[in-house]
Design brief:
Elements: E1 2-6, H1 11-20, E2 29-36, H2 52-72, E3 79-86, H3 92-102, E4 107-111, H4 117-123, H5 126-133, E5 138-141
Helix pairs in contact: 3-5
């Protein structure tokens, strides 16, 4: 089985990655994906300038997040592929699902912070969106 874990460095993502490790007897390959969120919206009427330093900082942050995942997998006996992608012009959930399909993943595992109310409206819920759009089975790990 191939498993893709959505990882953003949060406590919820760390729980999801730990949970994925419980499947090691069934897993042939583990993918850990971090998707850098778009800096700002784009469109034909949207004109802005984003300094290149913003993208450099985002890339450095993504590397640190994936490094934290590697540290959690130090003794993991299964092949692991770290994936770093951008959500430029696309939602994070769409990038995760598309990547799972491209990698022929059998399962997507994601954590959730159980956002509600105004927080969910502002921040959205990547895990909820993954469940809505995925053709790959999805397992959501609740927070402790």
């Amino acid at each position: 089985m191939k498993i893709l874990v959505a990882f953003d460095g949060s406590d919820a993502a760390k729980l999801a990655l730990k949970f994925a490790q419980k499947f090691k007897e069934l897993t042939e390959k583990l993918f850990v994906i971090y998707v850098t969120p778009a800096v700002m919206g784009t469109g034909p009427t949207f004109d802005s300038y984003v300094p290149s330093t913003v993208y450099v900082k985002q890339d450095e942050a993504a590397d640190k997040i994936l490094q934290s995942a590697k540290e959690l997998l130090v003794d993991y006996p299964i092949e692991v592929e770290m994936i770093k992608l951008d959500a430029t012009g696309d939602q994070i959930a769409k990038v995760i699902v598309r990547t799972a399909e491209e990698k022929s993943a059998d399962l997507i595992i994601s954590g959730t912070r159980k956002l509600s109310g105004f927080s969910k409206v502002i921040l959205g819920s990547v895990s909820s969106e993954i469940v809505k759009i995925s053709h790959v089975p999805v397992l959501i790990c609740p927070p402790e």
